[in-house]
Amino acid sequence: MFCTNCGFHIPKDTNYRFCPKCGIQLVFPEPVETAGSPPANVEVIPEKTVDDTGKKHILIVEDDLFIRELYQKQLEMAGYAVDTAVDGLEGREKVQSQHPDILLLDIMLPKMNGLDLLKNMKQDPKTADIPVIILSNLGQDTVVDKGLTLGAESYLVKADTTPMEMLHVIQEKIGN
């Protein structure tokens, strides 16, 4: 099976929810056999829509698959609706189209870094009110100061913050 977005080979005996190469969400539908054509093995969902259950919506912009899925699972278990983006440009598009309740933002991202995305958001009146929590392994004072100066609500160093601690910060900012 292959990701229809980037062509990455998905091994048969795995249950990946996201393509390990490009990060797009994958769905493995039940095979539908039709005469003369092979079953469709992978369906790519380009845009995850958030349900209308009244859940708070969190957008995670993180390029590391393991970290992205770890945070997503933790937050979904806590009752939040969660969407993800794998680079700064995709993050900017989703922020503008979905207007999440809060954004979890990495700094070192492909295509557009997190600080540029944060600056872009805070300059746009439509997205300036969205709270941003930076989650990065860059912990130098100058980088932390720059993130907070650009408008981030909090700055958490990934290596020093457990997913449960991150959850508590989110709950303080937007509630349950």
Overview of the structural elements:
The chain is globular. It has helices at residues 65-77, 88-98, 114-123, 141-149, 163-174; strands spanning 26-27, 43-44, 57-61, 81-85, 102-105, 132-136, 154-157. The protein is of the alpha/beta class. It folds into two domains: 1-46, no CATH class; 57-174, Rossmann fold (3-Layer(aba) Sandwich). β6 (132-136), α4 and β7 form a beta-alpha-beta unit.
Summarize this structure briefly.
The protein has helices at 65-77, 88-98, 114-123, 141-149, 163-174; strands at 26-27, 43-44, 57-61, 81-85, 102-105, 132-136, 154-157. By secondary structure, it is of the alpha/beta class. The protein starts with 25 loop residues before the first strand and ends with a helix.
Features:
single chain; 176 residues; alpha/beta; Rossmann fold; 2 domains; 5-stranded parallel beta sheet; 7 strands; 31% helix
Q: Note the quaternary state here.
A: single chain
CATH topology of the largest domain: Rossmann fold
Provide the CATH top-level class of the largest domain.
Answer: Alpha Beta
Number of domains: 2
Please give the number of β-strands.
Answer: 7
User: What's the shape?
Assistant: globular
The span between the termini is 38 Å
CATH architecture of the largest domain: 3-Layer(aba) Sandwich
Q: How much of the residues is beta strand, in percent?
A: 15-25%
> What's the helix-strand series?
EEEHEHEHEHEH
The spatial strand order of the largest sheet comes to 4-3-5-6-7
Structural class of the helix and strand makeup? alpha/beta
**Helical stretch count?**
5
Radius of gyration of CA atoms, rounded to a whole number: 17 Å
Mean pLDDT across residues: 79
The CATH homology group name of the largest domain:
Response regulator
